[in-house]
Write a structure and sequence with these properties.
3 domains; FAD/NAD(P)-binding domain; alpha/beta; single chain; 19% strand
Length: 453
């Protein structure tokens, strides 16, 4: 272990420790491992794993192709349904989706390693720059896509394949959205997110305009008047407030922003971290922030969640991963106030909670956890201006089953829509399906009917 100074410090570890801590969480299978793993698949006729995949990848087919020594064909099967299959293989909660549905997932057996097999195939195809798609004859139509995250990229790629031209507007300096800025560093190493963006854009016909924000640089009305269709893949940019006294103290930070800064850091030693860190929240962001705090050299990292283990949005695998890295997860604790010393964080007062008649209630009993750094990971909010009269509900965009919004010619998908699942793979599916809907409407030469009253 490296140096462990008090307070928030940079360079707690040695270069070798940083490199080891942030190495690939699940290195790619080699050929022999992939053949052994694929041989465990029963190639089920009814394929419950396929049903559990939001993008409906033909999982038995792609695994069979690997087992017969055809990883390139396997990648084609994957990309046909999910052009971001490489990233999804790394970050999908497969233990809650395809692998949970696997018939070999029993008390006596573990499921087929579907995620790792998917990565094996897609990595080989991308490394060889194997392109499976060419653009259809140009249609003369141009679609505006707002947001270069998973939903926007999937939508843009499918539209480009159909022969349409696409202009993607994104507020960030780099394309990729959540995949570039919101995923734990150890889950996607070697700048894979940008390599995947480059792979997707190589289809041609897609222009990316970075540093362009809806509501600041243009409005939805502007796009609707200038383009044949619009797709909104805006994601979630806001962060919920802690609503606890002391939230503005030096040492309190948004976990989302910290993860993004870490992803963009050229040197992990430049990332300052506390000696005692508390993360408030129970989702994937909380787990990612806590684990990475530990990997950066924090001595003690505690996750505080207001409900029980069974209520956490983070999967059991992710919870176990955090525990294996030395993260302490404490349940039934709600933040009450942040304690300061000399204007900086010194600890957090928490209140014990309980469910009373199904409602979360404070018990009145409190305790204090010492901390010099606190991360807020209590959910993100949709914040966007320039949307005009677009129908919203519960702070999200309302869409129909084809992704159409209440405004003619405007589609949406991903985390910004009502019912969004906060999953990369779900965003890809919505972007892809919206593109198919847009193409049908444009091919018919008709104006889309207003989808949502």
């Amino acid at each position: 272990m490296g140096r462990l100074e008090t307070g928030i410090q940079k360079g707690r570890l040695t270069p070798a420790e940083y490199e080891a801590n942030f190495s690939d969480l699940h290195p790619r299978l080699d050929k022999h491992e992939a053949l052994v793993a694929s041989d465990r698949c029963y190639f089920c006729y009814d394929a419950p794993c396929m049903t559990a995949c939001p993008t409906s990848i033909d999982i038995p087919m792609f695994i069979r192709q690997i087992s017969t020594g055809n990883p390139i064909g396997s990648a084609k099967t994957i990309f046909d349904q999910n052009i971001l299959g490489g990233m999804c293989a790394r970050v999908c909660p497969t233990e809650q989706l395809c692998e949970e549905a696997c018939v070999r997932n029993t008390a006596e057996e573990r499921p087929v390693e579907i995620g790792r097999l998917q990565r094996y195939a897609t990595d080989i195809a991308m490394a060889e720059n194997k392109q499976f798609y060419s653009r259809a004859a140009a249609t003369g139509k141009t679609i505006a896509v707002v947001g270069a995250g998973p939903a926007g990229l999937a939508c843009a790629h499918r539209l480009a394949v159909k022969g349409h031209s696409v202009v993607i507007f994104d507020a960030r300096e780099k394309a990729g959205g959540l995949n570039e800025y919101g995923i734990a560093t150890y889950k996607t190493v070697d700048d894979f997110a940008q390599k995947e963006v480059d792979y997707v854009l190589s289809i041609g016909g897609i222009e990316v305009r970075n540093g362009q924000m809806l509501g600041r640089d243009f409005s939805l009305a502007d796009l609707s008047s200038q383009y044949d269709a619009v797709f909104l893949g805006l994601g979630l940019s806001g962060v919920n407030a802690l609503r606890a006294a002391g939230e503005d103290l030096d040492g309190v930070a948004d976990a989302v922003a910290y993860i993004a800064d870490l992803r963009q850091a050229d040197d992990k030693a430049d990332m300052a971290i506390g000696r005692r860190v508390v993360v408030i929240g129970g989702g994937m962001t909380a787990i990612d922030a806590a684990v990475q705090a530990k990997l950066l050299g924090a001595e003690e990292v505690t996750i505080c969640y207001r409900r029980g283990k069974e209520h956490m949005n983070a999967s059991e695998f992710e919870q176990d991963l955090a525990a294996s890295k030395g993260v302490i997860i404490r349940h039934w604790l709600a933040p009450k106030q942040i304690i300061a010393k000399d204007g900086k964080v010194a600890g957090i007062e928490v209140e014990y909670t309980a469910l009373v008649d199904g409602k979360l209630t404070g018990t009145g009993d409190t305790g204090v956890i010492a901390a010099d750094q606190i991360f807020k990971a209590i959910g993100q909010t949709f914040e966007a201006s320039g949307l005009g009269a677009l129908k919203m509900e519960a702070g999200r965009i309302v869409i129909d089953t084809d992704g159409r919004t209440s405004l003619s010619g405007v589609w949406a998908g991903g985390d910004c829509v009502l019912g969004g699942e906060d999953l990369t793979v779900a965003a890809v599916a919505q972007g892809r399906d919206a593109a198919e809907s847009i193409n049908r409407v444009l091919a018919a030469g008709a104006q889309p009917a207003v989808a949502v009253a």
